[in-house]
Amino acid sequence: MDWKLELVIVPVSDVDRAKKFYTDQLGFAEDVDHRVGDSFRVVQLTPPGSACSITIGVGVTSATPGSYQGTHLVVTDIEAARAELVERGVDVSEPFHFGASGKQPGLSPNRADYETFLSFEDPDGNGWTVQEVGHQP
């Protein structure tokens, strides 16, 4: 039996502002924007190349906007990913990795999978991590 993660709900305070951030600044595709009155709206967005989407909206979660932390996006070239985010106006961290003494600035010395990261937040403070996997030197 396959168990596939298809959708993650991200709590936001302003759906239109969040939708603009995720589509215009992160380049997520808009799959659905469906509204039923003032108490229910679901906006489904998918990162480029991903099989899993996110949903933002009204009446879709009781979680506090900004409380979602640690969702990972995976890229093959973290330097190119950072450059794209900066170009799109995202306030993104410098690359970092973890060593014997904890979090360290810069790329992982050997660029091995799962060792180099970036981070950023959406307008509500939901925290995202970008992780490098499959980098070809």
TrEMBL record:
Pfam families, per the entry: Glyoxalase
VOC domain residues: 4-133
Protein name: Catechol 2,3-dioxygenase-like lactoylglutathione lyase family enzyme
Lineage: Bacteria, Bacillati, Actinomycetota, Actinomycetes, Propionibacteriales
